[in-house]
Structure formats: C-alpha cells, structure tokens
Write a structure and sequence with these properties.
The protein is of the alpha/beta class.
Length: about 650
C-alpha cells in the first residue's frame, strides 16, 4: 500500500521540488512491483530511486551496499530526514549487530543496509529465512558481472540470496554498465522482464584530457602542476599501493598548505575510514588512492581527478573520473599515460583467477582475453586524437552526440598537425618490417630486426638476410620499441596472441598496409612519433654493422657504470656479476618488449652486484626493486649471480 503520494514524499522527506530525468519513471516501475535495472551516471540521483519507494511502500527494504563508509553515510543522511534506516556491518560489535537483527526480525519498517558478504555469514543465514522484504535494492550492481570492472564473487551470488528472500521486487543500480554487463546482471539476479532504464552517460561539465608521456618521470611534475593550479578538492588515482604512499609524501612536500591523504587496501580499516572522513570534510583536500577509494563518494565539489596510471577499463575510468563535478560545475579529468603503465595492468590480468582452482582453464583464458581487449580500448582512448567525450559515449552505446565539448582534443591542445616526411618514412619502415615478419614474432624480435641486432634467434630464423634488417639502426633500441608501441596504438598494426603461453605477436592491419604503400597518410596522432633527442648520437640498439660482441658489451657496461656512479670501483668479481646482470636485463627487456631501464636502472644493478642476494626476499630489500619486480624479473636476475 502506498502510504503517501510520491510528490509529497519528495517535498516533505527529501526536501526536493522536482525529480531529475527518469527518476519518476524508475520509481513508478518499482512501486508497481516491476524489477528494474537502472543505469544512471554519477550524481544523477540513483539513491532516490529506491529510497523514496521504500518510504512509499512501507515495510522492509533491504539495500546491498559494498562499502561500510558508504552505507554509514547514507544511513546518517536518512536519519537526519527522520527516515528509519539501519545497517549491519563489521564496524559494529557482535552485540550491536544482534540488536539490529532483533529489531528487524520483529517487523522493521525502514531501510536496512548490508554488505553482500553478510548474506553468506553463518550469523545472518537464519535471519534471511525469516525476512520478507518488500524491496531489494542492489547498489553498484556492475560488481555482479564477470565482465564488469569491479567483479566481486559475493555480488555474483546475490541471485541465490534473492531466492532465499522470496524473490522480492528488485532494483539493481549502477553508473557503469555496457550491454554485456547489463545482460549479465539481469541473468545473475533472475530479473523478471525488467524495466531497463539507461539515462545516458554524458557529463558535459567534465573536461576530459589525456597526456601521453615519453618518460614516466614526467608524471610527478605534471601532477604537481595540476594540483597546484586547482585550489578545489582533488583525487589522484594510482595503480599500486607503493605509488600511493610515495606520491602522498611527495605532494605533501610540494604543497605544504594542503591536506594530502592516502587511501589503499593495504591500510588498516580505521586508517582508511579516517582518511576518507578527513577528505570529505576538508575544503581543497587531495586524496591519493588506488581504486579501493571512491565508490559512492558524495563530495559534490571535487574539481579535479588525475589518473596517475591508466585503469584497466573505460568503465573504471568513467566511474572514477566521474567523481569530479557532481555539483554540475566545470571540472577536469586528466589521464596520464606512459606505455609502461600497460605492463602493470597486464600483470593484474595475468593474476586473474590466481588461487581459485574452481575456474576452468578455458574460462580463465576467456576472462583474460576479455580483460586484455578492454585494456586495449583504454590505451586507444588515451592515444587517439578524437573527442574524449564522444569516445566514452560511443563505448557505452550512448547515441548522444557530444556538443560544445571542452576536452583537450576539441580545444585543439594536442597540436597534432601533418606528419613530417621524416616521420612518415620511419612509419613505413616500421610497417615494412611488421609485414615482412608476417605476424610470426613479437615486439622484441621486431626491435632487433629494425635495429640490426645479430642475436642467436635472429640467425636461427635468418632474419638478418631480410631487406628490412637494420632499417632503423641509427635509433636507440628503446626508442624503436617505443615507436613500435605507438604504431600499434595508432591502429596501423596490432598485437595478437594465438597461444596463451606466448607473448603477443605483431601483425599489420589493413589501414597499415595502405599507409605502408603510401595510399594513405599516417594518422596525425603519430606526428610526434620521434622521441626527444632521437636524432642525436649513435645507436645503442646495435653497431653500424649490426654485429655486437661480448667484449664490446662489457666495455659499454663499464662506461655506463662510470657515468652512473663515478665513485664505484668494482673488483673483478663484482664487475663480472654486473656484466651478467646487464645481459640478463637485456634478455628480460626483449622478452617483455620494454626498454631496459623499465626493468631496473644501472644503479640498481650495481647494488645487486655489490650485495649479491641469494633469495627473492633479499633481492626485494634492494633499492629499486620491490615485490612486483621481484615476481616479474627476480628469478632471472638471481640466476645471473650464480
């Protein structure tokens, strides 16, 4: 039974004069007992779509919410409006939880917020059998889908929980859901002919920008400059906890007058809660965080969101960037991209399913392939000089056209004009090598071929006999690798992995063939293909004859060491270890298609050679290493010391 008209509830309980677009339609469907999948952008008013029906219908509304801080914040706001609301979560004592459940079991007329894990806790299972809610609301519903950017196993089982609750009317809500994610949500929750409401993904007040960087070290300078220029509140997203901790210290030194707080899953719960509360209550605060931060953040005046590293999907980017400008005022969303960032995300993809023996190999391969495809789209978003807003709308299938856009592309900030004759020739040389290798090899082999490096594998495959061998021998290997990545990201070539046990191979695309044959000009995004200072000096990727010897390599190693640390005077044994470490690093760089310095710097190799660690734990303590690098490269580096 409807207790009051929805207009009266809107005015008298929520103190609002009008509904936002599609809110009333969603509420009408819920009150009619129809299941609803509601996709609304951040700040569009999703919460009202279940809170108002909860009051109108009366009885119990069960709300599934993923974060303790979010549910506590919403319960506090509802109680301030004299709306009955409660929560059960791990921040309460056992006695407090029992008291809430006692009240609910007695016939609670209000909203009860719980985390998805609660449905499968022994202490809650018996309670579930007695509950018959009028409405089940599932917030952040994209977490249900295996194709979503924040999949959670407990969310995936909410369909079971709904069955035990007697299949109440269900509303699933999210800000980010592509077609495949929507289908997955409907299937897993067994929604019955649901009303699907998608209000659109356009946020015209957000100015999207992407900066493609030649050096990862540029990120710190750019982040500091952006934060210093923006006095309003800001969030900086990083991919790793280590980056968060380091950046917090750095920003605090550079901006001593601002509150700078960190947030990641490695912090104690109390510290995370305190960090979030300080950010929420302090004007002009800066939060540096991993993606563990922000789901449900309701701070309307965030003026800047910086992605220090690229996220794994455009859904994640849209949601995280969307925490800016919830008050509708202009705000900036800046994505910083260095090609090494991709390797971090690929590391996360490689770990998918780790520790879960129940995942079948074919299923795991499908999940990794899907995640890699989504990562490709994030990189493409960052690299392509096309309206950022329109790219996001197209990704989500929103047919809205981006008008009066203020993104960096539409403002003309990128200054990507015609590609010079010099760069065009380099692009055609790269594409010729890709075509000549006929999609059989990866980035490492292509780099060796273009640089004219004679290696055992080059000779084994007789690639030194090709006409494309050594076409870019005057360019350093790291620059050639970088240019190869740029060529792939432009769409002229692509990486394909026909076998999960091998590194991706590179093959030319139809557009690349046309550019190679001079039937089409290269895309404007490659106008700045040549890295800075690329024309100076001779090649480090191979000698002019394309032949390298161990003696020459050792000589270069000693010269590099002296430039790195003039005071270092190694004995013969230490020097030998250093030489072997450099050789191992070169192999790793080719294997992972990365410049050698991304694996580790010479100074780090000096420390390893001096300390001669024997275990991964000892290697991890050396400055410049760390858990991630030890996992990725430690075995080969340690082997070089024996």
């Amino acid at each position: 039974m409807i207790l009051d008209s929805i207009d009266e509830i809107l005015h008298n309980r929520f103190y609002l004069n009008d509904f936002r677009p599609m809110q009333r339609e969603v509420i009408d469907d819920v009150l009619a007992g129809r299941d609803v999948l509601c996709v609304m952008p951040t700040g569009a008013g999703k919460s009202l779509c279940y809170q108002l029906p909860a009051i109108a219908k009366g009885g119990l509304t069960l709300v599934v919410s993923p974060l303790i801080s979010l549910m506590e914040d919403q319960v506090r706001q509802l109680r301030d409006r004299k709306i009955p609301a409660a929560f059960v979560n791990s921040s309460q004592t056992a006695a407090e939880q029992r008291e809430v459940l006692r009240i609910v079991e007695g016939g609670y007329d209000g909203l009860l917020y719980v985390a998805p894990e609660r449905f499968f806790a022994a202490s809650f299972i018996d309670t579930i059998r007695t509950l018959r809610p009028n409405l089940l609301a599932i917030d952040e519903a994209h977490c249900i889908s295996q194709w979503g950017h924040d999949f959670r196993k407990e969310y995936a089982r909410l369909g079971e929980a709904r069955e035990r609750l007697g299949r109440p009317t269900c509303i699933a809500l999210t800000a980010t859901a592509t077609d495949d994610v929507r289908e997955d949500i409907i299937h897993r929750l067994s929604l019955n002919e649901p009303s699907i409401v998608v209000t659109g993904f356009d946020r015209p007040n957000l100015s999207y920008e992407a900066r493609c960087l030649d050096r990862g070290a540029e990120k710190d300078e750019i982040a500091h400059r952006l934060l210093a220029a923006e006095p309003g509140s800001a969030i900086v997203y990083c991919s790793t906890r280590k980056s968060v901790d380091a950046l917090v210290v750095d920003i605090q030194k550079k901006l001593p007058g601002r509150l700078v707080t960190g947030y990641h899953a490695g912090m104690e719960q109390a510290s995370r809660t305190q960090s979030q509360e300080r950010f929420m209550t302090t004007p002009g605060a800066i939060a540096v965080a991993t993606n563990a931060f922000g789901m449900g953040i309701n701070k309307p005046d965030i003026r800047l969101v910086v992605h220090y590293d690229i996220p794994g999907t455009l859904e994640a980017y849209y949601q995280e960037a969307g925490r800016a400008g919830r008050d509708g005022l202009p705000s900036r969303c800046v994505l910083l991209y260095h090609f090494a960032d991709r390797m971090t995300q690929e590391f996360f993809i490689d770990r998918l399913g780790s520790g879960d023996a129940a995942v079948e190999p074919d299923r795991l391969a499908e999940m990794k392939s899907h995640a890699t495809a989504k990562l490709d789209l994030v990189v493409r978003y960052a690299r392509i000089a096309r309206c950022r807003r329109q790219q996001i709308l197209d990704y989500f299938g929103d047919e809205t056209g981006a008008t009066n856009c203020t993104c960096d592309v539409c403002r003309g900030d990128l200054q990507q004009g015609d590609v010079s004759d010099e760069v065009t020739l380099i692009i055609r040389k790269i594409l010729s090598a890709v075509a000549r290798l006929n999609g059989r090899f990866g980035m490492g082999m292509l780099t060796d071929v273009l640089c004219g490096n004679v290696t055992e594998r080059i000779q084994q495959w007789q690639l030194d006999q090709l006409t494309v061998f050594g076409l870019l021998k005057d360019h350093p290997a790291k620059n050639v690798t970088r240019m190869l990545h740029r060529t792939v990201e432009s769409g002229l070539a692509r990486q394909r992995d026909p076998d999960a046990t091998r590194r991706p191979i590179v093959e030319i695309t139809p557009q690349g063939v046309q550019v190679m044959k001079a039937l089409l000009p290269p895309p404007g995004m490659l106008a700045n293909l040549l890295p800075r200072r690329a024309a100076s000096g001779s090649s480090s990727g191979g000698s002019s004859s394309g032949v390298s010897t161990s003696r020459a390599s050792s000589s270069r190693a000693r010269q590099t060491v002296m430039k790195t640390d003039e005071a270092w005077q190694p004995d013969a044994e230490t020097q030998s270890r250093f030489d072997r470490l450099r050789a191992a690093r070169s192999e790793l760089a080719r294997e992972h298609t990365l410049p050698a310095y991304v694996i580790c710097h010479d100074r780090t190799l000096i420390l390893i050679a001096q300390q001669s660690p024997t275990t991964p734990e000892e290697l991890e303590t050396i400055k410049g290493m760390g858990p991630h690098k030890v996992r990725m490269y430690g075995e080969k580096l340690l082997a070089a010391l024996t």
